[in-house]
Design goal:
With 169 residues, the protein is mainly α. Helix 4 packs antiparallel against helix 5. The protein has a domain of 106 residues. The chain is built from five helices and no strands. 73% of the residues lie in helices and 0% in strands. This is UVR domain-containing protein. Keywords: Coiled coil.
């Protein structure tokens, strides 16, 4: 119903939204954001941050390259086993399953060893930082400020490395 642009009479709804007493706007009710859309938007933000970080396998070093190779081999074995099952080559699938179990056990052992080594390196780094902090105090008390600055820079580098190691665990 067209009212000719006249202002609403007292008591008549005047708002564009139902909560204001009027009918919804011509283009329809405001769209509702679903939980799935919210989750997708949050995931995109999270993935941007995750992808910006170095992968644990890439950042850790030589010891973890062995772990990465074992994981890659496990994925290959899984694919081969699935293919063997599809082709109904159950003997080959059984062999691959056995190899998969052996490799999984090896991987678990290797990962535990790597974790122990990382914990040891982390403890050593903490001890070294304490030692460097003592040297910084000593150098500044003796008026050797240039030396104190050098030692502080070494300490700061070690702290950054330690934070990276903590993130890896």
């Amino acid at each position: 119903e067209d009212d000719g642009g006249q202002p609403p009479q007292p008591g008549e709804p005047s708002g564009a939204y139902p909560s204001q007493g009027g009918a919804p706007a011509a283009r329809g009710a405001p769209a509702r954001i679903t939980e799935a859309e919210t989750a997708r938007a949050e995931d995109r933000g999270v993935w941007k941050r995750v992808l910006a970080r170095p992968k644990k396998e890439e950042a850790s070093g030589a010891g973890d390259s062995k772990i990465a190779a074992m994981r890659k081999e496990l994925r290959q074995i899984n694919r081969q086993k699935a293919k063997a099952i599809d082709e109904e080559d159950f003997k080959r699938a059984k062999e691959l399953q056995q190899r998969q179990k052996e490799l999984s056990a090896q991987l678990k052992t290797t990962e535990l060893q790597a974790k122990d080594q990382a914990a040891s390196r982390l403890a050593n780094a903490k001890d070294e930082i304490r030692h460097l902090e003592g040297l910084i105090r000593e150098a500044s008390e003796q008026g050797q400020l240039d030396l104190a600055v050098e030692i502080r820079q070494r300490r700061d580098k070690l702290r950054a490395e330690m934070r990276r190691m903590e993130w890896m665990q």
